[in-house]
Amino acid sequence: MSPVTEGQRPRIGILVVAYNAESTLEKTLDRIPEDFRPKITEILILDDASHDATFTAGCRWSQLDGRPPTVVMRHTKNLGYGGNQKAGYALAAERGLDIVVLLHGDGQYAPELLPRMVEPLERGECEAVFGSRMMRPKDALRGGMPVYKWLGNRVLTRLENKLLGTALTEFHSGYRAYSVEALRALPIERNTDAFDFDTQIIVQLADAGMRIREIPIPTYYGDEICYVNGLRYAKDVVKDVLEYRLAKKGFGTCSWIPKPAAYAFKEGDGSSHAVILERMRSLPPGRVLDVGCSGGLFAERLEALGHRVTGIDHVEIDGVRERCSAFFPADLEEGLPDGIGDGYDYIVAADVIEHLSRPERVLTQLRQVLHPHGQVLLSVPNFGHWYSRLRVALGVFDYDRRGILDETHLRFFTRASLRRTVRSAGYDVLSMSATGAPFWPVLGGGTVARVLGGVSKLLTRVRPTVFGYQYVALLTPHAARTIIAGEHIDVQDILNRQFVPTDRPTDRVGV
Prior knowledge:
The radius of gyration is 30 Å and the shape is elongated. The termini are far apart. About 35% of the residues lie in helices and about 20% in strands. Helix 12 links the parallel strand 9 and strand 10. The protein has 19 helices and 17 strands.
């Protein structure tokens, strides 16, 4: 969020979430500082289908003289703590607010501090401000926080900070102020409707690299009724941060965290891309068609080796045209795009065909734009790997964010089915190898990753169909016989020769 320029004032909204707050709502609203009220564009009071007269109390307060413009709404069914916030933030965005402060209708969080909650956002210093009861830990106990809650708060916050790499003093305060622009950028509509909604918001902010400021707030425990099941809440927030950590490593789907559009290439990590790049180093420079080029990081390395790369992908990532000699956006489900030309010396299809419903059709089209003696370097995950076999055997088969069970995979391959697929598309398999499991992305490098990686490579050599994580295949167009300058040559003899790309018209004709 940018700082407000001189002469401009941000549109500030106060979102009051209320449930069975008839006895506390008006008292809480009365505590909003008089000198701050003119700065409030609108107060949004959302009654989450209370069983008492919370809605009536909100309406009564809003009609008194000197009150900021106030909208009072009552849900016809209970949306839950998180669901009520979702509705409120959507309403804040719809009404053109710039800043929205979450205030609880039970008075547990001090409305007197509203000016301090919005100041960092007004100055553009952050995207979120949290009121923390733990910046001065002893104050929380003096304010009446039960010892078991104080201890649980401290333990959970420390664990969450460690897992997320953050340094917040408290994860569990419900006193929050947000930039509405920042909320629009987060997929909060996918978040839980339960009380761990606030934790998921923190995870999303941290994942997006957004800035969070904390200010100390007093602790008040009065006569309000607590609707939070402490043990269930603790289990849910720990599950959220663990789910996030696993999702960043590729396990599980975690739909409330955006999935990166671009492939993060890691040279030398033992992945299929690294293996293919190493093979390309030994081949003479030529024209390359990179199918599924993502942001062009792989193509950039090929260009550095002297190859001229044409990239294809269904999404255009920023910078891809600078990294490739040419780029064509295309949905491969509809076939290859027009204008890409033909006669390519090499085609790279790394981790692509498993995303297609009809890979045989695309492989056939690729053969038609390949030089008669060109080569295809192709890789696919091995569904026969022990990980997917174990998931099936245990009855917990499901998709992950990436890897063998990537949620976008439409086809699964074993070594035998891959051979059948490429042969039916008109290719001969020159070689097929298996890669070990990529422990670098999962464990972040280090001794453990190196040891496990070495064990994985050894087991892959012994039993590739079980321990091989991906297959990397080198293909060439199938031909029954080949004629060179009118002379019949055995096919295998041709395949054993090193192919030297050339820009000159060829005198070799495949029959």
